[in-house]
Amino acid sequence: MADGTKAVVDTSAADAAADEAALAAAIDELAGGKTAPAGDAGAPSSDASKNASTDPEQGSAPDTPVADDAADDAAGDAGPDAAAETEADTGAEADAEAGKGASGGEETSEITAPLSVHEIAAELAAGTARRKPAAPEPAPAAKRRPTDPQPTVDPRDTATLPRTLPAPLRHSGDKIGNRYRLEECISQTETFSSWRAVDEKLRRAVGVHLMASGHQRARKVLAAAKSAALLGDPRFVQVLDAVQEGELVYVVREWLPHASDLAKLLADGPMEPHAAYQMVRQVTDAVAAAHRRGQAHLRLTPRCVLRTDSGQYRINGIAVDAALRGLPADDGAEDSQRADTRAIGALLFAALTHRWPYPEDRYDLQGLPKDLQNAAPDQVRAGVHKGLSELAARALFDHPPHHAEPITTPEELARAISLMPRIRQPEPELPVFPTPPRHNTHALPTAPIPNRVADPAVAPLPASSRPTSTRRTRRRLRRVVKATAWTVALGAIGIASWQFVDTLRNNQGAVASPLPSASSASVTPHPTTHTPVPIPIKEALSYNPLGDGPDGNDSIGKAVDGDPNTNWTTQWYNDQLGPKPPALKSGTGLLIDLGSPQAISSVNVQFVGNHTAELRVPNAAAAADPKGAPIGEYTLLGKKSGTATDFTLDSPVTTRYVMIWLTSLSKDSDGRFRGHVAEVKVSG
């Protein structure tokens, strides 16, 4: 491999025949004493040079598939200790290669995969002609320490397949697909690179993964990206494009500029129980929903879990991250579900203890010592929430402490979380205000009196003869007298005014006016009755400035279709909307476009269930971009609650857009909160 590691080919039916034919040809060449040219086999890697066998008759082993397989056999004959040492060396080299990339790269260790069935059969058929001399009998092997099940190398690539291609060389400012301009390289590995880019067509930031199209993983990366794009779950970072263009394969995804990954959130220490509970609940619900649709992540790390400004968690790299790093999909759905469940358990373990639950130091977290393997979080750190600790141990370990039943699927984990007592957010501490001084606060500060030596000839005045208390009492009396005088004066003025007005009313009532004059009739206002006229609605738009995308965009037109039996339904929320946690956001809106400025006098809204809504119109600042303007740039015209609300304005308001801002949703039968708007009617 180009990254200097050695792994085993995937035993899929599509590649088995080609692999066996290439291996048989290489064995025949070696048996006939032929050495493959260097140009055919490719430049040997560093590990291949170290592990190549030396035969007295043939000299040094050529750089062929057989040489690598012989090295594998030698590692297998040497016993578990030698295999563990080889793995540790390979992992160190992989870490060194990862360190050469950008700062966003992750340092991970390698797990060497076992030989496949086809390769074992090829080894037995080749006989002893390509085996290395037997290694000395090793000492009894120590028990191997658990390893992080999230490698970054490709365990399917072998020397029997075409040589891997390095990551395409690109620079800031280059354009991909005549549309995406590369801005900053986020991470760089041996086989692919990740960039922050700008979509010049839609004028937005995106993330781009680049890989050579001739690479062994390119086809599987494209397939994984297309399957992830079809998922369509807003809790996952969306894949926007996946294209093979000439010698380049690129995958384009959403870019969340204000989101922070879990590794960064844990930089300052462990999470509070409520924050850890929110994280594991949202991540588990999302992963369980993906598995119900046949999708698995397979590489769920702290850098893949992102928290937005609104407190919602989104998961990056589903299926694509595993394909980029060459991690094979598990043999069955059961294995993939166990892998993702164990990964969620590791995330919760790290959030509670600020330690990585494996021996390796990963994601700026210190690994666990040897004597704390398979220990629950509350045994690693004091003060951990008991319920969350047990949940993490059951999801992470196959044999949890205290003979607890392990959790093997995301669906079981989501069910266990829902059965837990709800963890409340801690109340914020009130600020401590200093006690106000008792002396006169209006007095100007005086300069400190310099130290003087007391004159024994002058005796101090007694406390009763000091003038300070007397002056203070006089000032207070003056203030009380002034306040009393002002109160009496204002009361007298008010009584006199009331009597004067009452006198005028009585005089006007006594004067009879049999016929009004023409001039007085012309200026007397008469109340006019206004008949509401329906105003046609051009379209309804989802207004969700506090979220990550449109809210209920698939059913938005049902709110203005004239049929009260259909309704616009928002996405579900575990907590009611509100300005304070645990609410994720304060509201979500329905923006009504009238097509042109109209004078509106009333708006009628029909809900399904009890809702609280506000009627708002955009001000001058929001008129240019009403869908992207913050809610603070909308003028509040009224607020009502109920199943049907009728907003009647005192005077008509001319506007093109009308906002129905929902601040409280109804609770459905499944215990979640959703908004349901059956019909909106605007009248002028």
What portion of residues belong to β-strands?
15-25%
Largest sheet, described in full? Answer: 6 strands, antiparallel
Radius of gyration: 38 Å
Residue-averaged pLDDT: 73
- Low-confidence region ranges: 1-16, 30-120, 125-135, 137-147, 150-163, 452-459, 509-528
Q: Strand pairing plus helix content: what structural class? A: alpha+beta
Q: How many separate helices?
A: 16
Fraction in helix: 25-40%
Globally, the shape reads globular
Widest beta sheet: strand line-up: 3-4-5-6-8-7
CA-CA gap between termini = 73 Å
Could you explain how this protein is built, in words?
- The structure is a single chain.
- The chain is α+β, with helices and mostly antiparallel strands.
- Helices cover 30% and strands 21% of the residues.
- It has 16 helices and 21 strands.
- The strands form six sheets. Strands 3-4-5-6-8-7 form a six-stranded antiparallel sheet, with helices on one face. Strands 14, 15, 16, 17, 18 and 21 form a six-stranded antiparallel sheet that branches.
- Strand 1 (54-55) and strand 2 form a beta hairpin.
- Helix 9 (273-292) packs antiparallel against helix 14 (410-419).
- Mean pLDDT is 73; it is low at 1-16, 30-120, 125-135, 137-147, 150-163, 452-459 and 509-528.
